[in-house]
Design brief:
Blueprint (H helix, E strand, L loop, with lengths): L5 E6 L6 H13 L3 E4 L6 H11 L3 E6 L4 H4 L3 H7 L6 E6 L8 H10 L4 E3 L5 H11 L4
Parallel strand pairs: 1-2, 1-3, 3-4, 4-5
């Protein structure tokens, strides 16, 4: 049996949507991932430090209050500076203010260094399947 992959999850910035965060933790744990949950009101450094301490394979950032774009500025660069050059970086939720064309939102977050960007309402199963593909889990 392959080693479990470790994923750091949490809610960035001043966002406190704890219920969704717990649902993501539950779903990932049931999908056989080792989950490190930094909780709500988390900074970029909370995610990065947890990833370093646990030798994580990926970071999943959640945001529902619409300020994800501001909260995630420079996160990929900080990961790189911390030696996490190859870590997967995903984000999902209501990550921008107002209704915006998701393709444009996705493009902006990919320019910020995110590998995968999910719109509001996406099922966690989609992210889990993407993790399995990106981490080469069979």
């Amino acid at each position: 049996m392959a080693d479990k992959k470790t994923i750091v999850i949490g809610v960035i910035g001043s966002d406190v949507h704890a219920v969704g965060n717990k649902i993501i933790e539950y779903a990932l744990t049931n999908a056989n991932f080792n989950v490190i949950n930094v909780g709500v009101l988390s900074t970029q450094e909370d995610f990065i430090n947890a990833a370093i301490e646990t030798n994580a394979d990926g970071i999943l950032v959640s945001s529902l209050y619409g300020h994800g774009e501001l909260d995630c500025q420079g996160m990929r660069e900080k990961c790189d500076e911390a030696g996490l050059d190859n870590i997967l970086l995903y984000i999902g939720g209501n990550i921008v203010v107002g209704k915006q064309d998701f393709k444009e939102v996705e493009e902006r977050f990919k320019k910020l260094g995110f590998d995968r960007v999910y719109p509001p309402g996406v099922k966690i199963e989609t992210g889990i399947e993407d993790l399995k593909i990106d981490l080469n889990i069979k």
